[in-house]
Amino acid sequence: MEINRRWMVYTSWALALLAGLVAGFFIADASKETGPLRQWFATGSSRSVDVAGKPYKLVLTRTYLCGVRDEEHKPTSLTHLAETMVDYKGWEIVSVDSSKMILMKREQDISPACKANGHFGISADGMLTLFHGLPSEQEVVQTFYRINTAKMEARLSKDDVENLKRGIRVRDLAEYNSILSTYGEFQLNDDY
Predict the structure, then answer these.
(1) pTM: predicted TM-score of the whole model, two decimal places
(2) Are 130 and 170 in contact (CB under 8 A)?
């Protein structure tokens, strides 16, 4: 019994050491221009050369608090993928296949497009809505909640109500949050 336990401990330590050595080999190889792994890919079987030279696509997906999602496609190669991934520390790997890897990052900000041309307004059906452009253009980015317009008109000045109907420009996250907070008290509850 004692011998089996010792054998398991020694085997576990040996496997951990082996895993550390292999990981160290890969990390050290990634920092070299012509490391052993690169040489193996370059001089290995013809199948290895085909895989190593095959174009590979990195798809960078960003999601923003304002509901916008954008994608950027970056070509790379499998031989340079490890070096490229260093630039995307903190990104979540969504999927990987033989031709592409999809990474995602949740930005804690509003998108550049929302900063450039975002306007809060009320949609035709009474919803607090973020538009790309003025509400009259009806290019919806994100819909939030139905507004109790009677309550809003009773509590806010006529100018504040008209500003919302025309569209309130939002340039940054602070303005975005401020508008949501201001008009949140007029959210129509479905309980009535």
Answers:
(1) 0.64
(2) yes
